[in-house]
Amino acid sequence: MLAQERNNDINTEKRFTVRGSVIESDTNNPIPHVNIEVSGGAYTTTDNFGEFRIEAKKGDELTIRHKDFETVYYIIKSSERIKVEVQPNELEEYESKLFKSRATTQVFKSLIDSAEVYLKNNAKKSIQFIADALKDSKSVKENSEAYEVLGDVYMHWKQYDLAVSNYRISIQNRATNTVKIKLAKAYQLNKNYQESLATYNDIDKTELSNWQLVVLYEGVGDVNQTTKTFDAAIDAYNAGLKVAKKHLITPKITDLNSKIAQVYVAKGESQKAKGYFNESLKLAKTQNKKRGVEEKIKVADFQNNLSDYSSEIELRKEALEAISEIESDSAFDNESALTPQKQNYKIGNAYALQKDFGQAITYLEKSIEEADDKEDLIVQKDATRKLSEVLRDAGEFDKALVAYQKYVDLVDKVYSKKEQEISQAARFSKDIVSKQNRILSLESDRALSESKYQLNIQQARTQKLIIYSLIGGVLLLLITAFLMFKYIKQQRLANNLLALKTLRSQMNPHFIFNALNSVNSFIASNDERTANKYLSDFSLLMRAVLENSEEDFIPLEKEIELLELYTKLEHFRFKDKFDYNITVDKNINVSDFVIPPMLLQPYIENAVWHGLRYKKTKGHLNIAITQNKADEIKITITDDGIGRKKSKALKTENQQKQNSKGMGNIKKRVSILNAMYKDKVDVSIDDFQKEEDTGTKVVVTLKKD
To answer: What is the pTM for the complete model shown?
Structure first.
């Protein structure tokens, strides 16, 4: 038991990269092919520059062996930079001396170390240290190391395109397998999947350490899983698993079993997935508590997919207990899956799927309370919506309505917060790109300075260097221009998406509250049965609307269903004011067309509330969907109501503003969508007839993809 406990404590210690070099003390010449090993099982050798990197943890024993000098043993204390100087003695043999590099004599390495310290906490400060290090760089090797660390900064802050650029510059200065693996990972995260696979395949596997080889196979598997090449992903993961088992790399054995299980889930082979998940869960329990909780949550998600809600609930409750134990030592942000609010929400959802409404309500309320304490608006919003649905299914309609109104308020808060986050991210990206441009300019300036220096030594050679420097400067400018263009394009897309979400969020509450007023009027008239029937149909409509609220386009078939349900609700209230008819041309294949959600509803709402409602005689609303061209359909909405001119005269000043704002939202949505999807939607509005009640005619033209 004591041995097992000690093993668990060791596994919980953080691993880090130890860098070092082996040189001759009198000449400073590097010594290649020196054997480097740590007691934890990792192994590597020095490269042609006499340098090495190896994964270790505090307390590991570092062993340095070579045929020409005595073996050196050293206990690792931190992620220090280690240097071995081999000195000749009187018999021309070597003895070694181990010590840490000092900041007073190695300015460049000190600056790089400082950059790594601030990498995860202060991106701007870390980049500034790298810029200062590049000024003091005296070799291509140091340039390569500086750009590698700069790539690491951008990888951590999810600026993957910039990470790719800097890893490539690092490799151009000096190619190492470590940076190649990082470049391949950056390509994958930047969605350059073929470039990622090409980079992985270009690496000589015989030159890799055991750990690096496992990481390479894992990376190849990740790319293939992302591109849904599942068989290739399984082959790569199994190759990595074989190496990890052979060399007892326990953390990777757990990770690869888990990833193989996830691939089988994606393939729909649940039984195979279950076997690998059982293995990963068993292995994760022997590691630190955090890793064990992560795996329990993955398996719980798998049980949810299998509809095994009892097993899911049991695993999530165990995870909750473990989270409460490790929360005091680890801080989890709201993006992490290891938060109690997310697990309580998923437990409540599982109970709801089992129709155990009492337990579902308890856990959902816990989730809402914890999310509120931790300012997790996303979980609070989702849990509140689910609570409203559970209360409704449990027959507690009043409480369900209150919960739903809270959900509507939370939706507005979420959109407001998202808008702020996008603005902050834009400012951060702008600052990062600015600093990257300054570093690229520094590199260009240094190339030009070297050219001027060489001019005094050799004229012919200098002319070539100037030409190459100018070409390099142009390439750097082109890269900078490309990065700026990509950033602007991404920002414009983000702004358009945010604008669409904002406009949809403004439209949804408008007709929701109109419908709730209808329910209120039925209740006020003591027509409870009618109110219940109306509320039931209204809940079906709202569920469909919320399901589609995040989409720019939905299938035309779904929009027609929403249209029929909404028109039915309006007719339910104003039976004595109008009849309606919805016709779809039988020749139209509705599955070929898509349409922005909630595009047609406001026009129908205007027809009923501002045209037909004020008509002295019973009116008629007609909705016709026809096809005149193979790639185009027309949706015509006509009513014989009092018309726009009379309706405007009847409105109060406030009503006119509200209607203007509602129609303005539609115009903005259409404008943004046409800009993004090349004039896909066209809308025209005119009078329907020349009689006293002129009515209104709306024609929506929709083009096929």
So the answer is: 0.49
